[in-house]
Design brief:
With 235 residues, the chain is mostly helical. 63% of the residues lie in helices and 2% in strands. It has one domain.
């Protein structure tokens, strides 16, 4: 199906408040018009991300590899979500996974980059550090365009919540096999950073908060659009 059958100029079903749709509408529309470029950039980011995680893969039991490359999986999700939309085959489940993943990892990575900046900059060149910071924030921007292609059905939000809760669990709390599987941080886990919290606790706290936040945003978006959604069969 031609991409223009999904008109990128169509407005959201309802005008959403700025805290739910912070990306200016002209920028949203531009992103949808350039959807295949957005897909290609995300696929390139996915490939880079898997390369970046190679050292951690080598230290992780193969059966747990799925839980290691969190950011690359999130960009793969959103590449798939936008591509299916462009082909007229929207998938709300994939779109919800993309929304959760790009907000969670798009904000968690800058959180640890800033909190542990001195440690990161000891072995990371400034251009790479800046690239990691900016590229992950861009993940958040594109996540907030997804309301244009989904109304966040409860079942889809439930699946995304389940996946990222399981991911959170094995990353920080119950690794099942081996050590916790979160992205490694360049600080000893027990190092006290601030207010008596260790490095591990700060990383885990950020991950917990950023698992809850997209759940709130997705359900709030659905509630804001509820009258229009109620008119659609099967929703």
């Amino acid at each position: 199906m031609d991409v223009m059958q999904n008109d990128p100029d169509r407005p959201p079903v309802d005008r959403l408040p700025g805290w739910l749709a912070p990306v200016p509408e002209p920028l949203e529309t531009l992103g949808l018009r350039l959807v295949w470029l957005v897909v290609a950039v995300n696929l390139a980011g996915t490939a880079f991300g898997f390369w970046y995680y190679l050292p951690q893969f080598s230290q992780t039991p193969p059966e747990m590899w799925l839980f290691v490359p969190d950011s690359p999986v999130a960009t793969l999700f959103i590449a798939g979500a936008f591509a299916l939309w462009a082909l007229g085959r929207e998938n709300d489940y994939l779109t919800a996974l993309a929304f959760f993943g790009n907000i969670k990892l798009g904000l968690w990575t800058p959180w640890v980059l800033v909190v542990f900046s001195d440690a990161f900059l000891e072995f990371t060149a400034v251009p790479m550090y800046a690239f990691l910071l900016v590229s992950h924030l861009a993940m958040v921007v594109q996540a907030f365009v997804l309301h244009r292609i989904t109304d966040f059905p409860v079942a889809a939000v439930g699946l995304a919540t389940l996946w990222y809760t399981v991911d959170l669990t094995v990353d920080y709390f119950i690794p099942i096999v081996g050590d916790p599987h979160h992205t490694t941080i360049p600080v000893e886990y027990t190092t006290e950073i601030a207010l008596g919290a260790s490095a591990f606790q700060l990383a885990a706290w950020g991950a917990v908060v950023l698992t809850i936040a997209p759940l709130f945003w997705a359900l709030a978006t659905r509630l804001e659009r509820r009258p229009a959604v109620d008119e659609q069969p099967g929703r």
